Amino acid sequence: RENGDTDVTIEILYCGICHTDLHQAKNDWGITTYPIVPGHEITGIITKVGKQVENFKKKKKRYVVHVPESLPMDAAAPLLCAGITVFTPLKDHNLIESPRKKIGVVGLGGLGHVAVKFGKAFGHHVTVISTSPSKEKEARERLGADGFIVSSNPKQMEAGKRTLDFILDTVSADHGLGPILELLKVNGTMVIVGAPGKPLELPAFPLLFGKRTIKGGIIGGMKETQEMMDLCGKYKISCDIEVVKPDNINEALNCLAKNDVKYRFVIDIAGSSSNL
Predict the structure, then answer these.
(1) What predicted TM-score, i.e. pTM, was given to this entire model?
(2) Where does the Alcohol dehydrogenase-like C-terminal domain start and stop, copy by copy (predicted)?
């Protein structure tokens, strides 16, 4: 339709590919309504504004946020889902501007690597918990993680017991929560932002003996998203991405289903001649 008085028209340049897109396309959660066009991590340039959006530069447009000029448009796209998904639990638990805490990040994928960047930018001690020993070097040397625990290593898990104040679980694959909960201190909190397809295994004793809390997390509102974007601009935080052309979307989705992606795929719509 035509651009309305309260609308902005955007030329879409980039779109991230999220695990949610895969779940929705395949109706993994049983809630998909077809036809569906997956894709919600979108960045672009405003080409037209309605009569009533003069204040957009003051950040008062309802469903649009500014991408700071210090961030690349392609690597900023996944911040609109992956970024805000991990930012909101940190904000909800006063971990944006707070004394140094020991936080854990479960999984070093599309969400997890951004969580590590946020945790370090906000001054915390960050430990990555992963099933892949091969990711330790990158977690420590490139992302700046302070610690790394291989969740399948009993000795490492035992040594990590009751060392963390807060854990952010970003894993979408099926996994048990009991051993990970043991890493929390007494009264510690775990927030789950991944969305496994099957119910999570949760034994009672790690909850009872540690007086621990498990919560769910989800993306934030527009105000929080703009706050996150501004902080990303301040700390030069963006996502690590693999850029693909629209012609390769199906291939990228298949790779994502097999976890064959380094952090995040982003579709380069601007640089393609494809007729979408």
Answers:
(1) 0.91
(2) 110-232
